[in-house]
Amino acid sequence: MSRQKFVDRERELAFLEERYSSGDAELLIIYGRRRIGKTELLLRFARDKEHVYFLASEKPYRDNLRELQRMMGKSLGDKLFSRIEFGDIDELLIEFSKRVNGRRVVLIIDEFPYLIERYKPVLSLIQRAWDMELSKSDLMLILCGSSVSSMETEALGYKSPLYGRRTGQWRVDELPFWSLREFFPDYSAEDLVKVYGVLGGIPAYLIRFDPEKSFDENVIERVLSKGAFLYEEAEILLKEEVREPANYFAILQAVAGGRSRFGEIVNATGLDKSLVSKYLNVLEKLGMVEREVPVTASRKEALKRGRYSITDNYLAFWFRYVFPNRSYLEAGMGREVWERSRGDFNEYMGAVFERLLRKPEVFTRLTGFGFTKIGRWWHKGEEIDLVALNENERKVLFVEVKWKELREREAMGILKDLKRKAELIGLDDWGKHYWLVAKKVEGKETLRKEGWLVWDLGDFEAL
Ligand SMILES: Nc1ncnc2c1ncn2[C@@H]1O[C@H](COP(=O)(O)OP(=O)(O)OP(=O)(O)O)[C@@H](O)[C@H]1O
Ligand SMILES: [Mg+2]
Questions:
Q1: Cβ-proximal residues to 188 (8 Å cutoff; 6+ apart), any chain
Q2: Is ligand 1 within 6 A of the CB of residue 76?
Q3: pTM of the entire structure?
């Protein structure tokens, strides 16, 4: 396979490089959702450095250990190293660090949670090696694993003593929206937002779409077709990550179908309240689900008025379009399903577009508005898509987001209504600004001349 291009990860690489040149022993914990690009990032970082990359697997612990020892021997250029008998991983690590003495070496243990699953004491053994020797060495030890497995085993979780020894950690997140352009250089801004709505910023998924084909063809061929990677990925992902996938499944299905309140999710799933709350918590930590409260809510209100939604766009799409249509899709009717879903997909994209604009890095880049709080607001049937508050300067930006093509008159009407709704929030003596973002706004320039903030995808293209 030809070497594919590597997109972004500038902040992550800068973080790793900085630690690399710290001059101290490092114990870093790198984690993140499956397929987010952890392994690729670490390989990219290590490739021009002296390093050992070890990928733990579901093999027995002793086999893993032998493999690690072999990799170390190879990196040391010492054939005899792999013949040494070590009692356990602590002795192996200590001996390795002595051998590399004086040189900065990166030691990566990928899929680290597999080791712990096989052999729990590995945690205290590594801790021991760290305390005795590694912490005084020149080693940069990187432990990497996916979020859930790490959290579930508590390996890299807060309670683990090893976690307490870490010198740093980084959660690898989705690629930023702007980097999608590098995957699809010829797509319009509208197409990019749509791709984002189906796949999110997950590199393993983005590379499955063919940039030479249209958005619709990609969806039909690469998601809605039996046998395609993305057709089954959601199921595989959940099964790999969590112990009781059926329950997570039921919850995600309920939320994707628009059940946003806790009580609604409990009813739809028929699961016990405490279980739903536990699972939602895990899904939130994974960044798959988010719980929103009105941006102006007090702490007390916030406890009661939460609304859940799926933040992981791929999962949201999958649970909305693949899962409920399984029988058609199994019969090869992806094209028909997609034709039928057009109207609904527009609605779905409304929520995607809103969520995208609410992302601090996107919001800031587009508006330059400094905020201390950002979120949605709702009260008694009234709703504002996005409210950004700057509590220090007492100013607020109200935003209406429409995945629609608007005429000048419509746009005007929306802005006036936004102004009316904004009055309901109070904030009387604050400086108020109003912003409309839509797919397309006719007469954008005229509205701007009248002092309104109006944006459409044409402005995205220019960025
Ligand atoms: N920054 C990037 N630019 C382009 N492609 C990337 C990038 N990061 C990852 N990829 C590609 O995405 C795929 C998944 O990445 P990778 O295997 O690193 O994910 P991971 O987080 O290690 O996943 P898992 O938890 O399943 O091991 C790979 O094919 C990789 O080449
Ligand atoms: Mg990996």
A1: 457, 461
A2: no
A3: 0.92
